């Protein structure tokens, strides 16, 4: 059953400029080999909505927001009414998403239920299915175009494991974002080496991305490099 897998009661890093709680949603419609949230993706719902709402009631005035991550939060069928309840408490909401569920993202934005979105750009079109095991780049692109044309604050980011993506792949993504008129910063996140087993049991990188080869058509920021 899809739902809330766990709750991290406090973070000062996940939601830019806000103190937040993080809700981890189980299940995902992708199988990225570098994903180290295997327990979340394949886990079962652990926490009921009411328990989360009771916790948040006690954090009114102490926290600024709630971050939805996973897994893929947009798979949760009650996400819209659940978000409405959280917003009524006065919290801002951040959504981490792979962007494939366009309809859910659009409804969240149209109903002003989300204040910040971190949109993963997993790979350029030619490698999208190889990296994600999901063939719907067209659905992702629809979400990207919608967010670029919207007023919601959002960022685009890519996790880089050089066994999957190289400098040419990243530059292709940058060219796509530039052509579409993306005005924000593009974040490149170096694959985080961990002892946890990843979904694809991927090997450590043999090399890091060569930052000097990344083009500067748009602002780029490097995380964990």
What does this structure look like?
Helices cover 29% and strands 21% of the residues. The protein has one domain (4-223): Aldolase class I (TIM Barrel, Alpha-Beta Barrel), CATH 3.20.20. The protein is built from 7 helices and 8 strands; from the N terminus they run ββααβαβαβααβαββ. The protein has an 8-stranded mixed sheet with strand order 1-2-3-4-5-6-7-8, covered by helices on one side. It has helices spanning 38-42, 49-57, 79-88, 102-110, 128-132, 137-149, 167-180, and strands spanning 4-11, 20-25, 65-70, 92-97, 116-120, 153-160, 186-190, 220-223. Helix 4 (102-110) links the parallel strand 4 (92-97) and strand 5. With 225 residues, the protein is of the alpha/beta class.
Key words describing this protein structure:
7 helices, 225 residues, alpha/beta, TIM Barrel, eight-stranded mixed beta sheet, single chain, 21% strand, 8 strands
Give me the secondary-structure topology.
Layout: E1 4-11, E2 20-25, H1 38-42, H2 49-57, E3 65-70, H3 79-88, E4 92-97, H4 102-110, E5 116-120, H5 128-132, H6 137-149, E6 153-160, H7 167-180, E7 186-190, E8 220-223
Parallel strand pairs: 2-3, 3-4, 4-5, 5-6, 6-7, 7-8
Antiparallel strand pairs: 1-2
Strand content: 15-25%
What is the CATH H-level superfamily?
A: Aldolase class I
Q: Reading side by side through the largest sheet, how are the strands ordered?
A: 1-2-3-4-5-6-7-8
Percent helix among the residues? Answer: 25-40%
Which consecutive residue ranges, at least 5 long each, have pLDDT under 50? Answer: none
The name of the CATH topology is TIM Barrel
Shape: globular
Q: How confident is the prediction overall: mean pLDDT?
A: 96
- Pairing-aware structural class of the strands and helices? alpha/beta
Q: Count the strands?
A: 8
CATH architecture: Alpha-Beta Barrel
